[in-house]
## 1
Amino acid sequence: MEPVPSSPGNSPASGQNRRKSPRFETLGRVLGHLIDADLPVRVREIGFGGFSIETIEPIPVDIVHQVRFTAYDDWTSTCEARSVHCRPSCAADGSPRFVTGFQFADEWLRQSEHLVKTLVEKITTTGMFS
């Protein structure tokens, strides 16, 4: 699995890509849940610094959320992450969506490394023998 490639809108030259680490597309293999809002979310991509989600409602920015990740094989883990931006988007069918970027909360940065390694393994494994 390769990191998500830059597009013209988020290339370093445009100033939009300020990530310190690459992100990996989840390809629908990981579900998310904002515990405090009791809101299931679509996890779009994940990296060692954070992740992005897609929702039908905007998520307030600069709030630390408890987030539960569940992989296709029912593996689950919870962490804390701060919402850092929210922008309008649209689903493949044209319906409105919002994409929110999260940064792992400072106290979770060391622990998030194991979480992200596990999630990257889950989204890059074919699951042929499970």
Note: The first strand starts at residue 23 and ends at 25.
## 2
Amino acid sequence: MTETARARVTQAMRLRFALELFLRARLLPLRLRRDLPFDEMLDLATPPAKMPYRGLSGEEISAAVHRAVRHPLMMRDRRCLREGVLCFRFLRAAGFDPRLHFGVDPGSLNASRLSAHCWVTLDGETLAGATAIPMVPLHVYPEGTPPQTARTTGTG
């Protein structure tokens, strides 16, 4: 394949990524209802086995996802979940092996409302959902990976 043809393929892949991200970011709030069973929510985060975005970097994907969800019309109080699900999905579609973490703010355990959080790590670095509040990790997806506390680095 010539350099020009390779550049066209890369440009087409980035355009497809941008379009799919735009659509999924807008439609995901309609599918992530509050009463959605946890396993169905994880299904939304998991792309098909194909990897159409191989070649995009993890940082490029997480930055694009962060931009796509930064001004939410819906899910204002669950932005980290929306960002986490999208970032995880697109990292997987690019061939990466990220982790989707779920945790709670220990300061909210005695409050009237529990404060939960979602974040994505790749090779131990937080790419989405970074927070300055130390969270108590509860679950990591895929299972079998020890949970990590959200770090303050990244684009979250």
Note: Confidence is low (pLDDT under 50) at residues 151-156.
